[in-house]
Specification:
- This protein is 79% helix and 0% strand.
- The chain contains seven helices and no strands.
- The N and C termini lie far apart (68 Å).
- The relative contact order is 0.08.
Length: 146
């Protein structure tokens, strides 16, 4: 069966869901902002508990990674991401989710070939390129100070 471009366009228009770009952007902005506000609240809480600035920020990162993995394991993060879209890609929680998701999905294949091998499927390139970018930026900074 051969169809024309016009017929194909009409068919895809009928089958494709309507895009609510403005509403989707608002959800992403709202949820991403909430994650950031929660991170700031954590930092302020750790500071008030007597941690130094650097320690408070470290504990905030650790807490956000833990919560990202926990919510992924409980299948809550995915439901939030379905509604919020890019808002859940806030670096620390989104990264925790991207590492935990494949690991949880493939745990039935065993610890080595399932969990261990699949854990870095998505996160591996992020780690590699992040490390490479850090080295390049460090080199640029080093050379610019001479």
């Amino acid at each position: 069966m051969e169809i024309s471009k016009k017929e194909y366009s009409e068919l895809t228009r009928k089958k494709s869901p309507d895009s609510k770009l403005f509403v989707d952007c608002l959800w992403a902005f709202f949820v991403g902002g909430l994650i950031c506000v929660f991170g700031q609240i954590l930092t302020e809480t750790y500071l008030r508990m007597g941690a130094g600035d650097r320690d408070a920020r470290t504990w905030t990162s650790i807490t956000l990674v833990f919560l990202g993995v926990l919510l992924t394991a409980l299948d809550i993060y995915g439901k939030i991401a379905k509604k919020a879209g890019a808002g859940t890609l806030v670096p620390i929680t989104g990264f925790a989710n991207s590492v935990a998701s494949p690991a949880i999905e493939f745990k039935s294949e065993g610890y080595v070939l399932g969990l261990g091998a699949k854990m870095f499927t998505i996160a591996g390139p992020v780690i590699v390129y992040g490390t490479l970018a850090g080295a390049v930026y460090g080199l640029i900074l080093l050379l610019s100070r001479r």
